[in-house]
Specification:
alpha+beta; 2 helices
């Protein structure tokens, strides 16, 4: 079973915010990703957006799109 759930960290323990359909003593693997955006991630996303915009929004594509309609 794979599930993405929200949890809260309290007193050194992760506590799920919703019930889990697991048997007692089931061993699980946990990947922790905080939900707050950090400035480094925000900057990385902004740079990706600029790079994609420059690759997709160019005159060569406009000419190609016109030729496709003929």
């Amino acid at each position: 079973m794979t599930a993405a759930i929200r949890a809260i960290y309290e007193g050194g323990t992760l506590r799920p915010l919703e019930p889990l359909d697991l048997a007692e003593h089931t061993v699980v693997r946990i990947t922790v990703e905080t939900s707050e955006e950090d400035s480094e991630r925000r900057e990385w996303l902004e740079q990706c957006k600029k790079t994609l915009a420059s690759a997709w929004a160019n005159e060569a594509d406009d000419v190609y799109n016109v030729l496709l309609t003929k």
